[in-house]
Structures are given as structure tokens and as C-alpha cells.
Amino acid sequence: MKQNNEKTNVMRILDQHKVNYQVHTYNDEIALSGVEVATLLNQDPNQVFKTLVTAGKSNQYYVFMIPANTELDLKKAARSVNEKNIVMIKSKELLPLTGYIHGGCSIIGMKKQFKTIVHETAKNYDTVIFSAGKIGYQIEININDVSKVIQFVFADVIND
Q1: What is the rounded distance in angstroms from the CA atom of residue 59 to the CA atom of residue 73?
Q2: Could you tell me the residue ranges of all domains in the chain?
Q3: Residues 53 and 115 sit within 8 Å (Cβ to Cβ)
Q4: Global pTM?
Q5: Is CATH 3.90.1640.10 the right assignment for the domain spanning 19-155?
Q6: Backbone angle region of 74, left / alpha / beta, with phi > 0 → left and psi within -120 to 50 → alpha
Q7: Rounded mean pLDDT of the chain?
């Protein structure tokens, strides 16, 4: 296991806002799928969320946080942000746009705050787990506490 005393930007931001969270770490230097992360952490993949960044036809960017074992429904996602259509951004665009790399992208602490949509099933859990902004680091937090740090809305944006 990694040392739990290392802080990521996400953790520093949560600390500044006095938001409680728990850190989960795993030893891996490469980006894993959300399901692989859930398995490594021995957690329910419905409770472990992944962060996806998209671009709309209007050239606006949108962030979606969905359960690790699901796929983003691009039509539902576009409707949720009043766009005709949206596409996933290319991996190479992620770092300059958000400050995060693939596999370490978090809804908290991006260079710029984009409209963020969290899949509505997050409300079903006392806590959800998502990237702490660095590969190998996840945070577990009550989704309502995230609203103390960033703005987001809930919507159904996954494939049925």
C-alpha cells in the first residue's frame, strides 16, 4: 500500500473546506478501469465512480461522474446539458484542459470548473468513491459533502 500521508490537490481542497473523506490507495502506476479499481479496493463497482470529460456541439465542456461498471449514454448525457450531441474528449486533451491525466481525473480540483453531472445512483449510497486526482488514490465521501466544494446536478446519464 502507498503511504496514506501523501496529499493530492483533491484532498487539500477538501481539507480547506473542512469536508470529511476517507482515502483508499492501491499500488498501480498505470490507469486501470473503474471496475479494476473497485476490485482492488474490494468495493462495490456501483459505488465506485469514474470521471468522464466530454465536449458539446457548442464547444462547451462537460464532466460526468458515473458508476465504474456502466457506460455513459451520449444521448442522455447531451440532453442533460441541453446539447444536440456530445463526444468524449481525446485522452491527449485531458491534461491541458483539466490538469489531470487519464486514470487520475477527479470532479474536484480541475483547472476550470465545468458543468458537472453526477449519475443519480450516487444518492443511493451513504458514500461514493472516486479518484482523488492521482492514479492509485481514491477518496470515499458523502456525495452531498461534494456540493460544499463544487456545483453539480444529478441526472440519469448511463446506458440502461
Answers
A1: 19
A2: 19-155
A3: no
A4: 0.93
A5: no
A6: alpha
A7: 93
